[in-house]
Protein backbone atom coordinates (compact mmCIF):
# COMPACT_ATOMS: atom_id res chain seq x y z
CA UNK A 1 0.00 0.00 0.00
CA UNK A 2 1.45 3.43 -0.84
CA UNK A 3 2.30 5.60 2.17
CA UNK A 4 -0.59 8.00 2.85
CA UNK A 5 0.01 11.59 1.81
CA UNK A 6 0.85 13.90 4.69
CA UNK A 7 -2.14 15.82 6.06
CA UNK A 8 -2.54 19.36 4.77
CA UNK A 9 -0.79 21.74 7.16
CA UNK A 10 -3.22 23.45 9.47
CA UNK A 11 -5.98 20.90 8.78
CA UNK A 12 -6.99 17.87 10.78
CA UNK A 13 -6.42 14.54 9.00
CA UNK A 14 -9.38 13.47 6.88
CA UNK A 15 -10.94 10.00 6.80
CA UNK A 16 -13.78 9.33 4.36
CA UNK A 17 -15.58 6.16 3.42
CA UNK A 18 -17.88 4.54 0.91
CA UNK A 19 -20.33 2.13 2.49
CA UNK A 20 -22.35 0.20 -0.11
CA UNK A 21 -24.91 -2.43 0.85
CA UNK A 22 -24.32 -5.60 -1.19
CA UNK A 23 -27.95 -5.91 -2.18
CA UNK A 24 -26.86 -5.67 -5.82
CA UNK A 25 -24.09 -4.26 -8.01
CA UNK A 26 -23.46 -0.51 -8.13
CA UNK A 27 -25.86 1.46 -10.34
CA UNK A 28 -25.54 4.96 -11.77
CA UNK A 29 -26.86 6.50 -8.53
CA UNK A 30 -24.47 4.67 -6.22
CA UNK A 31 -21.56 5.69 -8.43
CA UNK A 32 -22.45 9.36 -7.92
CA UNK A 33 -22.14 8.89 -4.13
CA UNK A 34 -18.93 6.86 -4.49
CA UNK A 35 -17.37 9.43 -6.81
CA UNK A 36 -18.22 12.40 -4.58
CA UNK A 37 -16.93 10.63 -1.49
CA UNK A 38 -13.71 9.59 -3.25
CA UNK A 39 -13.06 13.07 -4.69
CA UNK A 40 -13.71 14.72 -1.35
CA UNK A 41 -11.21 12.41 0.37
CA UNK A 42 -8.56 12.95 -2.30
CA UNK A 43 -9.16 16.73 -2.42
CA UNK A 44 -8.44 16.74 1.34
CA UNK A 45 -5.47 14.39 0.92
CA UNK A 46 -7.36 12.02 3.16
CA UNK A 47 -7.86 8.30 3.41
CA UNK A 48 -10.84 6.69 1.67
CA UNK A 49 -12.15 3.50 3.27
CA UNK A 50 -14.46 0.87 1.87
CA UNK A 51 -17.01 -0.75 4.16
CA UNK A 52 -19.39 -3.41 2.92
CA UNK A 53 -22.65 -2.86 4.78
CA UNK A 54 -23.82 -6.46 4.77
CA UNK A 55 -25.51 -6.39 8.17
CA UNK A 56 -28.97 -6.75 6.63
CA UNK A 57 -28.32 -10.35 5.64
CA UNK A 58 -31.78 -11.05 4.18
CA UNK A 59 -31.11 -8.31 1.62
CA UNK A 60 -27.60 -9.43 0.74
CA UNK A 61 -27.24 -10.81 -2.77
CA UNK A 62 -24.54 -13.46 -3.05
CA UNK A 63 -21.61 -12.21 -5.11
CA UNK A 64 -22.75 -8.57 -5.17
CA UNK A 65 -19.86 -7.50 -2.91
CA UNK A 66 -17.33 -9.00 -5.32
CA UNK A 67 -18.95 -7.18 -8.26
CA UNK A 68 -18.96 -3.87 -6.36
CA UNK A 69 -15.24 -4.19 -5.61
CA UNK A 70 -14.53 -4.98 -9.27
CA UNK A 71 -16.64 -2.06 -10.48
CA UNK A 72 -14.78 0.36 -8.19
CA UNK A 73 -11.40 -0.98 -9.24
CA UNK A 74 -12.24 -0.86 -12.95
CA UNK A 75 -13.26 2.78 -12.59
CA UNK A 76 -10.06 3.66 -10.71
CA UNK A 77 -11.73 4.30 -7.34
CA UNK A 78 -8.99 2.72 -5.25
CA UNK A 79 -9.62 2.51 -1.52
CA UNK A 80 -7.14 2.57 1.33
CA UNK A 81 -6.56 -0.33 3.70
CA UNK A 82 -8.57 -3.48 4.23
CA UNK A 83 -12.21 -3.72 3.23
CA UNK A 84 -14.37 -3.91 6.34
CA UNK A 85 -17.52 -6.08 6.49
CA UNK A 86 -20.21 -5.47 9.04
CA UNK A 87 -21.03 -9.16 9.44
CA UNK A 88 -17.58 -9.55 11.01
CA UNK A 89 -18.13 -6.81 13.56
CA UNK A 90 -21.00 -8.07 15.74
CA UNK A 91 -19.00 -7.72 18.99
CA UNK A 92 -18.61 -3.98 18.38
CA UNK A 93 -22.36 -3.53 17.93
CA UNK A 94 -23.12 -5.68 20.98
CA UNK A 95 -20.81 -3.52 23.07
CA UNK A 96 -22.35 -0.27 21.85
CA UNK A 97 -25.84 -1.62 22.53
CA UNK A 98 -24.84 -2.67 26.05
CA UNK A 99 -23.44 0.76 26.66
CA UNK A 100 -26.64 2.49 25.56
CA UNK A 101 -28.66 0.10 27.66
CA UNK A 102 -26.55 0.70 30.73
CA UNK A 103 -27.05 4.44 30.21
CA UNK A 104 -30.84 3.93 30.14
CA UNK A 105 -31.09 5.06 26.50
CA UNK A 106 -32.71 1.90 25.14
CA UNK A 107 -35.98 0.09 25.78
CA UNK A 108 -37.66 -3.03 24.54
CA UNK A 109 -40.68 -2.50 22.30
CA UNK A 110 -43.53 -4.97 21.84
CA UNK A 111 -45.32 -3.10 19.05
CA UNK A 112 -45.85 -4.72 15.70
CA UNK A 113 -45.42 -2.59 12.64
CA UNK A 114 -49.05 -3.07 11.61
CA UNK A 115 -50.25 -1.69 14.95
CA UNK A 116 -48.42 1.58 14.52
CA UNK A 117 -49.67 4.72 12.80
CA UNK A 118 -47.55 6.05 9.96
CA UNK A 119 -45.31 8.89 11.11
CA UNK A 120 -43.40 9.21 14.35
CA UNK A 121 -43.38 6.33 16.82
CA UNK A 122 -45.95 7.33 19.46
CA UNK A 123 -43.90 6.08 22.39
CA UNK A 124 -46.29 3.28 23.26
CA UNK A 125 -43.64 1.14 24.98
CA UNK A 126 -41.58 3.97 26.43
CA UNK A 127 -40.71 3.28 30.06
CA UNK A 128 -43.43 4.84 32.17
CA UNK A 129 -45.79 5.33 29.21
CA UNK A 130 -49.42 4.99 30.16
CA UNK A 131 -50.52 3.92 26.71
CA UNK A 132 -48.87 0.48 26.70
CA UNK A 133 -51.90 -1.73 26.12
CA UNK A 134 -50.51 -4.91 27.65
CA UNK A 135 -47.32 -4.76 29.69
CA UNK A 136 -46.90 -8.54 29.46
CA UNK A 137 -46.26 -8.70 25.75
CA UNK A 138 -42.75 -9.84 24.78
CA UNK A 139 -40.12 -7.46 23.51
CA UNK A 140 -39.70 -7.58 19.75
CA UNK A 141 -37.38 -4.73 18.86
CA UNK A 142 -35.24 -2.29 20.83
CA UNK A 143 -35.63 1.46 20.53
CA UNK A 144 -33.30 4.35 21.25
CA UNK A 145 -34.85 7.00 23.47
CA UNK A 146 -34.70 10.10 21.27
CA UNK A 147 -33.43 13.32 22.83
CA UNK A 148 -36.00 16.08 22.99
CA UNK A 149 -35.28 19.27 21.09
CA UNK A 150 -34.07 20.26 17.65
CA UNK A 151 -30.86 18.77 16.29
CA UNK A 152 -29.03 21.22 14.05
CA UNK A 153 -26.05 20.67 11.78
CA UNK A 154 -24.57 21.97 8.55
CA UNK A 155 -24.56 19.89 5.41
CA UNK A 156 -21.63 20.87 3.21
CA UNK A 157 -23.80 20.66 0.06
CA UNK A 158 -27.13 21.89 1.38
CA UNK A 159 -26.26 24.26 4.22
CA UNK A 160 -27.96 24.47 7.63
CA UNK A 161 -30.29 21.60 8.55
CA UNK A 162 -32.48 20.85 11.52
CA UNK A 163 -34.74 18.07 12.71
CA UNK A 164 -36.67 17.49 15.90
CA UNK A 165 -36.02 13.76 16.11
CA UNK A 166 -38.33 13.11 19.07
CA UNK A 167 -41.25 14.89 17.40
CA UNK A 168 -40.65 13.96 13.74
CA UNK A 169 -39.32 10.40 14.06
CA UNK A 170 -39.83 9.37 17.66
CA UNK A 171 -37.78 6.74 19.48
CA UNK A 172 -36.21 4.69 16.71
CA UNK A 173 -35.24 1.06 16.35
CA UNK A 174 -31.61 0.09 16.83
CA UNK A 175 -32.19 -3.65 17.12
CA UNK A 176 -34.83 -5.08 14.85
CA UNK A 177 -37.53 -7.63 15.62
CA UNK A 178 -35.61 -10.20 13.54
CA UNK A 179 -32.64 -9.72 15.89
CA UNK A 180 -30.52 -7.82 13.36
CA UNK A 181 -28.77 -4.59 14.24
CA UNK A 182 -30.43 -1.64 12.57
CA UNK A 183 -28.61 0.50 10.01
CA UNK A 184 -28.74 3.61 12.26
CA UNK A 185 -26.75 1.92 15.02
CA UNK A 186 -24.14 0.10 12.96
CA UNK A 187 -23.33 3.06 10.74
CA UNK A 188 -22.60 5.24 13.77
CA UNK A 189 -20.57 2.56 15.55
CA UNK A 190 -18.54 1.83 12.41
CA UNK A 191 -17.87 5.45 11.51
CA UNK A 192 -16.73 6.00 15.09
CA UNK A 193 -14.54 2.88 15.22
CA UNK A 194 -12.95 3.68 11.86
CA UNK A 195 -12.23 7.29 12.78
CA UNK A 196 -14.35 8.62 9.91
CA UNK A 197 -14.25 12.43 9.88
CA UNK A 198 -16.37 13.01 6.78
CA UNK A 199 -19.47 11.27 5.48
CA UNK A 200 -20.32 11.92 1.82
CA UNK A 201 -23.35 10.00 0.57
CA UNK A 202 -26.70 10.24 -1.23
CA UNK A 203 -29.38 12.70 -0.18
CA UNK A 204 -31.77 9.89 0.78
CA UNK A 205 -29.74 9.59 4.00
CA UNK A 206 -29.92 13.27 4.92
CA UNK A 207 -33.01 12.47 6.96
CA UNK A 208 -31.03 9.91 9.02
CA UNK A 209 -28.29 12.33 9.99
CA UNK A 210 -29.97 13.86 13.05
CA UNK A 211 -30.71 10.38 14.44
CA UNK A 212 -27.10 9.37 13.83
CA UNK A 213 -25.85 12.46 15.61
CA UNK A 214 -27.95 11.63 18.66
CA UNK A 215 -26.55 8.10 18.72
CA UNK A 216 -22.97 9.36 18.30
CA UNK A 217 -23.47 11.74 21.21
CA UNK A 218 -24.92 9.01 23.41
CA UNK A 219 -21.91 6.82 22.59
CA UNK A 220 -19.40 9.64 23.11
CA UNK A 221 -18.25 9.45 19.51
CA UNK A 222 -17.15 12.44 17.46
CA UNK A 223 -19.66 13.68 14.86
CA UNK A 224 -18.43 13.43 11.30
CA UNK A 225 -19.09 16.34 8.96
CA UNK A 226 -21.66 15.46 6.29
CA UNK A 227 -22.20 16.21 2.63
CA UNK A 228 -25.24 14.75 0.86
CA UNK A 229 -25.17 14.66 -2.94
CA UNK A 230 -28.27 14.77 -5.16
CA UNK A 231 -29.97 11.52 -6.07
CA UNK A 232 -30.38 10.33 -9.62
CA UNK A 233 -34.03 9.91 -10.52
CA UNK A 234 -35.40 7.47 -13.07
CA UNK A 235 -37.90 8.32 -15.83
CA UNK A 236 -40.79 8.14 -13.35
CA UNK A 237 -39.11 10.54 -10.92
CA UNK A 238 -38.13 7.88 -8.37
CA UNK A 239 -34.70 7.46 -6.84
CA UNK A 240 -32.56 4.94 -8.72
CA UNK A 241 -32.20 2.05 -6.33
CA UNK A 242 -31.65 -1.65 -6.25
CA UNK A 243 -35.21 -2.07 -4.94
CA UNK A 244 -36.67 -0.46 -8.03
CA UNK A 245 -34.37 -2.44 -10.29
CA UNK A 246 -31.90 0.20 -11.39
CA UNK A 247 -29.68 -1.47 -13.99
CA UNK A 248 -26.18 -2.43 -12.85
CA UNK A 249 -23.50 -0.02 -13.89
CA UNK A 250 -21.79 -1.12 -17.09
CA UNK A 251 -18.13 -0.34 -16.49
CA UNK A 252 -16.94 -1.44 -19.94
CA UNK A 253 -16.57 2.28 -20.79
CA UNK A 254 -15.07 3.67 -17.59
CA UNK A 255 -14.60 7.25 -18.78
CA UNK A 256 -18.23 7.51 -19.91
CA UNK A 257 -19.39 6.25 -16.49
CA UNK A 258 -17.19 8.72 -14.65
CA UNK A 259 -18.23 11.65 -16.85
CA UNK A 260 -21.93 10.80 -16.37
CA UNK A 261 -21.56 10.67 -12.57
CA UNK A 262 -19.52 13.88 -12.66
CA UNK A 263 -22.25 15.62 -14.68
CA UNK A 264 -24.88 14.40 -12.20
CA UNK A 265 -22.89 16.24 -9.53
CA UNK A 266 -23.49 19.44 -11.50
CA UNK A 267 -20.07 19.82 -13.13
CA UNK A 268 -19.26 20.46 -16.82
CA UNK A 269 -17.77 17.43 -18.64
CA UNK A 270 -14.00 17.36 -18.28
CA UNK A 271 -11.96 17.73 -21.49
CA UNK A 272 -10.03 14.49 -21.00
CA UNK A 273 -9.58 11.39 -23.17
CA UNK A 274 -8.79 8.73 -20.56
CA UNK A 275 -9.89 7.77 -17.04
CA UNK A 276 -6.28 8.31 -15.98
CA UNK A 277 -6.49 11.95 -17.06
CA UNK A 278 -9.94 12.34 -15.48
CA UNK A 279 -8.77 12.02 -11.89
CA UNK A 280 -6.36 14.93 -11.41
CA UNK A 281 -8.76 17.28 -13.22
CA UNK A 282 -11.76 16.14 -11.21
CA UNK A 283 -9.89 16.34 -7.89
CA UNK A 284 -8.75 19.90 -8.68
CA UNK A 285 -12.27 21.02 -9.64
CA UNK A 286 -13.79 19.37 -6.56
CA UNK A 287 -11.15 20.93 -4.31
CA UNK A 288 -12.01 24.37 -5.69
CA UNK A 289 -15.63 23.92 -4.65
CA UNK A 290 -15.43 21.74 -1.55
CA UNK A 291 -11.75 21.62 -0.70
CA UNK A 292 -10.15 22.46 2.61
CA UNK A 293 -9.35 26.08 1.74
CA UNK A 294 -6.42 27.76 3.40
CA UNK A 295 -5.59 26.34 6.81
CA UNK A 296 -5.34 28.67 9.78
CA UNK A 297 -1.55 28.65 9.50
CA UNK A 298 -1.62 29.52 5.79
CA UNK A 299 -3.93 32.48 6.15
CA UNK A 300 -2.37 35.91 5.86
N1 LIG B 1 -25.20 1.29 3.16
C1 LIG B 1 -25.93 2.48 2.81
C2 LIG B 1 -26.42 2.39 1.39
O1 LIG B 1 -25.89 1.62 0.60
C3 LIG B 1 -25.09 3.72 2.93
C4 LIG B 1 -24.84 4.09 4.33
C5 LIG B 1 -24.15 5.43 4.53
O2 LIG B 1 -23.44 5.91 3.64
O3 LIG B 1 -24.31 5.96 5.62
O4 LIG B 1 -27.36 3.08 1.05
Q: Can you tell me about this structure?
A:
The protein has helices at residues 28-43, 64-75, 90-102, 165-168, 183-193, 209-218, 254-264, 275-290, and strands at 15-18, 47-52, 84-85, 106-109, 141-144, 151-155, 159-163, 172-175, 198-202, 225-229. The protein has 300 residues and is α/β, with parallel strands linked by helices. It is globular, with a radius of gyration of 21 Å. The mean pLDDT is 92. Bound molecules: glutamic acid. Glutamic acid (GLU) binds at residues 19-21, 53, 187, 201, 205.
- The strand line-up of the biggest sheet is 1-2-3
Q: What small molecules accompany the polymer chains?
A: glutamic acid
| Category by helix and strand content | alpha/beta
Number of strands: 10
Beta content: 5-15%
Largest sheet: 3 strands, parallel
Helix content: 25-40%
Over the alpha carbons, how many angstroms does the gyration radius reach? Answer: 21 Å
Low-confidence stretches: none
Mind telling me the CATH class of the domain at 13-87 and 232-300? Answer: Alpha Beta
What's the rounded overall pLDDT mean? Answer: 92
CATH architecture descriptor text of the domain at 13-87 and 232-300: 3-Layer(aba) Sandwich
What general outline do the C-alpha atoms trace? globular
Return the CATH topology of the domain at 13-87 and 232-300.
Answer: Rossmann fold
Distance separating the two termini? 36 Å
